Amino acid sequence: MERTIALVACLILGAAIGWFGERGPRPAPANAPASAFSAGRALADIEIIARKPHPTGSAANFAVREHLVARMEALGLTPQVKVARPFATRERGGKTHVYGARIENLVGMLPGRDPSAPALALMAHYDSVPLSPGAGDDAAGVAAILEIIGVLRARGQPERDVIVILTDGEELGLFGARAFFAEDPLAQRIGFVINLEARGSAGRVNMFQTGANGGPTVDLFARVTPGSPSNSLAAFAYEQMPNDTDFTIPREMGLAGLNYAFAGRQFDYHSPTATVATLSRRSLQDLGDQALAATVATAYSDTLPGTGPDKVYAPLPGGKTVAYEAPLGWILIALSALLLGLAVLRARRARIEFRLLDAGQGALAGVYVLVATTVVLRFARQATGVGFGYLEQRELLAQAARFEAVVILLALGVVLLAAAALAKGGMRLTTGLLALAAGLGCQVFGGWDLPGALLGLAAGLVALAAFGQPAQRGASWTGLLATGLAGAVALQILAPTAAFLISWPLLLACFGAALSTLGAARPLALRLPMILIGAVGLGWLSFAIHALFVNLDMVELLALTAWLAAFLLWPFAHPRMGGAGRITALLVLGAGLALLALVRLDPPWSERYPRATIVQYLVDQGEDRAYRLEAAPELSDWSRRALRADGGEIRSLEATPVWRRPVHAATAPALALPSPQLELDGGAGRQVLSATPPPGASTLILELRASGPVSDVRVNGRPAGLLATPGQWSQLRWSAEAQPVQLSFQPVDDAGQLEVRYGAVTPGWPAAATPLPPRPREVMAFDTSDSTVVTGTKLLSW
């Protein structure tokens, strides 16, 4: 019983440590000293910027621009509005895509004492996605920069110039950053960039990216940053992902810098719910505090960080960030091995039973925890019934706390079951059936799932080998920690900047093993430190647990953290006789499954978390027919009513120039709507396609195919990779532009044809169409919903 009490105390204290660490700083009021960052003052700008959605090119975005110009003038930044028409090229599905926009950057400067010194740039974007006010993404970043400039003015003139770059068109393709760093002469003066972003409306702020070879930058960050959860695991994970921010552009140019973001409450990311009311004031203060610390450290310094090997960095329990050279991780692993060896030596001297067979069973139990937790969590994700994808995942984001509790309970249950099985023995059937049932569940809820089946089978086989005979606590803990040593060595080789995730809790657990003689020592003076060691380790691990859950829709990865938690929990979770431990484990697993059933069966939609709909009125002008369509993957009752308003039956509509996948659609009257103006003119053999979007259109999409070879293809006078292969489609997507977009090329043949499939998106429902039914409060318009789309085909000859 006392070990059960110790286990519960360890879990509760660890959860409390993690919870307090995730809260962040208290927001400073508007009357805080001018020399300190104030979330209260920054909030005044956010209330104006995020008053309504303001995508690039909209009247609302022009209004935001004017407010920002006035604020920058008041701060003495002498702002300039820089208009540009950048574009980028990418290959997708064997097709060349060129996408661009007309954007308006805002650039200003706070002069420093030494104009010849490399400048510091503070960057954030002021545009939002359609229908989202963007309070977090990225009004918070813009407002934080304005507040930081105010703080610098209060502290005195910096050593170097501080350039403020408020970009436009980030949501369309990083266009503001592309234009600034490619075209603006000030870009050549910049030596360091601090970029502020968000992927939600709450959560602690992470510095998740530096410039390439950013070791010296990490040293600066660790030295000056107040209590940040930032770590090199997040940086390593981000590098493996396809995501980009404005910081991507200067980083690719070799500039040093820091990239910050908070990512909690991701339901609000790019959502109409991203309002001032839902924005966490603590997150805003955290963003400002961290960015201000780095700004002061660079703006008032004689030098800027150079380049050097990437470093390991992470917060110690308590919040102090440490940074060290990646090879030093080998010392931590060696120290863990020495402590574990000391623990075994002390146990032998104390004549505590220690059998190598028990240690081997402990190692197998560690493998079981890893594999069984992976398949159990994979089953849980599939059993939710929620699909995989940006829109599909929103159903889980609406109940993120509930599903996170499911994941934690199931993972903890597997750890406790493995410990109880080793203590009791004879639990091959129970542990094996759990793994096999989870693997079978993957097939039931996920369709044919070979990885799930193989994982379930593998965990079942490990259970047969591990849980036949009872294993003594100390020896089995040793075997478990030995798997940690092997994992730490592997990660130190493969990803040294992320290896701390294993080596730090392993070191703490090995210290506890040495201190307690492999858990055998029972005096209260040792029991309390062991509880504290476990709680501190679990509280520290919570940052990884929460970050992996929030940022990746891959809950299987949390099996790694369950395995690490087992290092710390083993002396409490491994009961002497096994009975109470088994019952506790089954109760925890049962609670997780019951909560999982609630996630699946209880719809999360509410006024705070409404269901997303993307309803459009599409007129196919080439076929003279029209549809009311819903682009969200699942139809709500409201969407069915909206689509059937003109009497059409709902069916699947194949991909269009606007949507690359099939959508739900019902026939509707073919309204007479303006179409894009497409004109092909030739002069001196060179052909120029001039494409003018319909009045009010936000996006023009052209799919192009030439009958013969062409060369020197240009968009608005600049080389582009379109029409490279005769007969193959290319796509040009242009946004926020009322003026014609020009595509020019030099044909090889004297005569030929250019086939154009067009699409144009105009915000707003057609006035002549049957109105949409009123939405209930638990349903919202999302992304480009309630807009008008025209498509068609035109054949142009030269």
Q: Can you give a write-up of this model?
A:
With 798 residues, this protein is an alpha+beta fold. Helix content is 44%, strand content 21%. The chain has 22 helices and 26 strands. The strands form five sheets. It has a ten-stranded mixed β-sheet, with helices on one face. Strands 1-4-6-5-7-9-8 form a seven-stranded mixed β-sheet, with helices on both faces. Strand 10 and strand 11 form a beta hairpin.
Low-confidence stretches are none
User: Biggest sheet, strands in spatial order?
Assistant: 2-3-22-19-24-26-13-14-16-15
For the record, give the distance between the C-alpha atoms at the N and C termini, rounded to a whole number. Answer: 88 Å
Count of separate DSSP helical elements? 22
Kindly state the number of beta strands.
26
* Helix percentage: 40-55%
The main pleated sheet reads as: 10 strands, mixed
Strand content: 15-25%
The rough form would be described as globular
Cα gyration radius (Å): 29 Å
Class from secondary-structure proportions: alpha+beta
What average pLDDT do the residues reach?
94
Q: Gist?
A:
This protein is of the alpha+beta class and 798 residues long. The protein is built from 22 helices and 26 strands. A hairpin with a 2-residue loop joins β2 and β3 (95-101).
Blueprint of the fold:
Elements: H1 2-23, H2 39-49, H3 59-74, E1 80-84, E2 87-92, E3 95-101, E4 103-110, E5 119-125, H4 135-155, E6 162-167, H5 170-173, H6 175-183, E7 190-198, E8 202-210, H7 215-224, H8 232-239, H9 248-252, E9 256-264, H10 281-299, E10 311-315, E11 321-325, H11 329-349, H12 356-383, H13 394-397, H14 400-424, H15 428-446, H16 450-466, H17 473-494, H18 500-515, H19 524-551, H20 558-573, H21 579-601, E12 611-613, E13 615-620, E14 625-630, H22 637-643, E15 651-653, E16 663-668, E17 677-683, E18 686-692, E19 699-706, E20 710-715, E21 718-719, E22 730-735, E23 741-747, E24 753-763, E25 779-781, E26 787-797
Parallel strand pairs: 3-22, 5-6, 5-7, 7-9, 12-25, 13-26
Antiparallel strand pairs: 1-4, 2-3, 4-6, 8-9, 10-11, 13-14, 14-16, 15-16, 17-18, 18-23, 19-22, 19-24, 20-21, 20-23, 24-26
Helix pairs in contact: 1-19, 1-20, 2-4, 2-10, 4-10, 11-17, 11-18, 12-14, 12-15, 12-16, 12-17, 12-20, 14-20, 14-21, 15-16, 17-18, 17-20, 18-19, 18-20, 19-20
